[in-house]
Design brief:
Blueprint: H1 21-30, E1 45-46, H2 58-66, H3 75-87, E2 92-96, H4 99-110, E3 116-119, H5 124-132, E4 136-139, H6 160-170, E5 178-181, H7 194-206, E6 211-214, H8 218-228, H9 237-246, E7 250-254, E8 265-269, H10 272-285, H11 296-308, H12 312-331, E9 344-348, H13 349-352, H14 362-374, E10 376-377, E11 379-381, H15 383-386, E12 388-389, E13 396-397, E14 403-407, H16 415-430, E15 438-442, E16 453-456
Parallel strand pairs: 1-10, 3-4, 5-6, 6-7
Antiparallel strand pairs: 2-8, 7-8, 9-14, 11-14, 12-13, 15-16
Helix pairs in contact: 1-14, 2-11, 3-11, 4-5, 4-10, 8-9, 8-12, 12-16, 14-16
Bound molecules: pyridoxal-5'-phosphate.
Length: 462
């Protein structure tokens, strides 16, 4: 076996800026120790997100020049619509400026206060949009998802028994929609099997519940199905993806992930009446139905991205490069969620810093330390993101897990960048016993992780 190489060469480069440890300490203080509040130019390797950070191809840039900016009926829309119909198969395409706008339009159209929406694991914006319309977001991950160190292939699956239980408990009238997120981003970036999608779809349809897919990373999920699910290895990724979507009534999509674009998204559906209501709302908040908050050139970039993202040379390299980071960290003894996900490696902050209790925010400590050590920016997915302050008692409640996600932008970093990240994390790991916790000094009501301020409970940076 030869080295798996990047299946591209570099035509345009973007310098990244080196900083000193003292500068980074100052930057962190100015940002209230919240890595979301750092200036990107002060970050060396930015693994905050894989969202909107992809490098576009020469073909995408060429398509951007073909973008037609007609307010209504742009050919760019029809090119995107044709590709979405071919790959996703849904009847109606409703473009939006990004994934959460698609979520808002979907949930505010189908949900009423008191409703319940099941998902394998809601992504943060998905949960927030469900809750914003007064419905309850319920996560039903399989129990294996909790076995963080076990490299099982489909830990992103939904617990079908728990779904049946929920339907029996709250009644179908209160479940206007059921979703499954591929790959399961907040659940460690783990894939969902074809068998699980099929089964969840069958349970939904048996009860007359519309089944939707949060499809942000459908191509990475399809490639992991091809690699790891029995009987799938001979099929093309496109064929597998089409089958996945064939079980659903619609989807939401952020083109900032597997659209290989820097902005954009859509909601798609087979339901004519719903599409009509969604378009009305779209006109109110996003724009005319053939551009939905995007420029024509963005629609073109997404249309081409949706061609390129299913190329198997690309996916082979993509999954191998994420696994490379995970395997090297594992070899250094660093605890990560196993196996590495499709788009990210998740450091297990609870195991990394076992002496820091959840309410002292071990993931926040780790994220701040990675930046201090080497200018590497990851993101806490733990008590800061998913814990809450009980509105009645004022008591702080921990999140279900303590992770730091290192998301890998698509086609952006090379192997030596990843080697550097491994060195930074290993250095922090070696001094883990001297690392303590944090407390939050300022927080917003919703999605607090984006803007919160923190204060270290130990001698940070000394
Ligand atoms: C990114 C993401 C979203 C929201 O998309 P945006 O484009 O960031 O608004 C929804 N669900 C999942 C699983 C995501 O990863």
């Amino acid at each position: 076996m030869k080295t798996i190489i990047e299946p591209f060469r570099i035509k345009s480069v973007e310098p990244i800026r080196m900083t000193t440890r003292a500068e980074r300490l100052e930057c962190l203080r100015d940002a209230g120790y919240n890595v979301f509040l750092l200036r990107a130019q002060d970050v060396l390797i930015d693994l905050l997100t894989d969202s909107g950070t992809s490098a576009m191809s020469a073909e995408q840039w060429a398509a951007i020049m073909r973008g037609d900016e007609a307010y209504a009926g742009s050919p760019s829309f029809y090119r995107l619509e044709a590709r979405v119909k071919e790959l996703f198969g849904f009847k109606h395409l409703i473009p939006t400026h990004q994934g959460r706008a698609a979520e808002r339009i979907l949930f505010s159209t189908v949900c009423r206060p008191g409703d319940v929406v099941p998902n394998n694991t809601h992504f943060d914006t998905t949960r927030a949009n469900v809750e914003a319309v007064g419905a309850k977001a319920v996560d039903l991950p399989v129990p294996e998802s909790q076995r963080r160190q076990d490299p099982l292939p489909f830990k992103g699956n939904m617990d079908v028994g728990a779904l049946r239980g929920l339907i029996a408990e709250v009644g179908v009238e209160r479940i206007p929609i059921c979703m499954i997120t591929i790959t399961n981003n907040s659940g460690g970036g783990q894939p969902v099997s074809l068998a699980n999608v099929r089964e969840v779809s069958a349970v939904c349809h048996e009860h007359g519940i519309p089944f939707y897919i949060d499809a942000c990373r459908f191509a990475e999920n399809a490639y992991l199905i091809k690699l790891n699910e029995a009987g799938q290895s001979e099929r093309s990724v496109e064929e597998i993806a089409r089958e996945v979507f064939s079980y659903a009534d619609g989807c939401t999509f952020s083109a900032k992930k597997d659209g290989l674009a820097n902005i954009g998204g859509f909601v798609a559906t087979n339901d004519d009446r719903l599409a009509e209501q969604e378009r009305e709302l779209l006109i109110l908040t996003e724009g005319f139905p053939t551009y939905g908050g995007l420029a024509g050139r963005d629609l073109e970039a997404i249309a081409v991205g949706l061609q390129e993202v299913v190329h198997e040379d690309y996916l082979h390299y993509r999954l191998a490069s994420v696994r490379y980071l995970g395997d090297h960290l594992t070899a250094a003894g660093v605890p990560i969620v196993q196996p590495p996900g499709g788009h990210a490696v998740y450091l297990d902050a609870a195991a990394f810093l076992p002496h820091v209790p959840p309410l002292e925010l071990p993931g926040q400590s780790l994220a701040a330390e990675l930046y201090l050590e080497g200018g590497v920016r990851g993101v806490e997915i733990g008590t800061v993101m998913f814990g809450r302050r009980d509105p009645e008692t004022g008591e702080d409640l921990p999140g279900p897990m303590e992770l730091v996600r290192l998301a890998i932008p698509r086609r952006v970093y090379t192997q030596s960048h990843v080697d550097y990240v491994v060195e930074v994390i290993t250095d922090v790991y070696h001094r883990r016993e001297s690392i303590g916790g944090f407390r939050m000094t300022r927080q917003a009501e919703v999605l607090r992780h984006f803007t919160a301020w923190f204060e270290p409970l130990y001698a940070f940076g000394t």
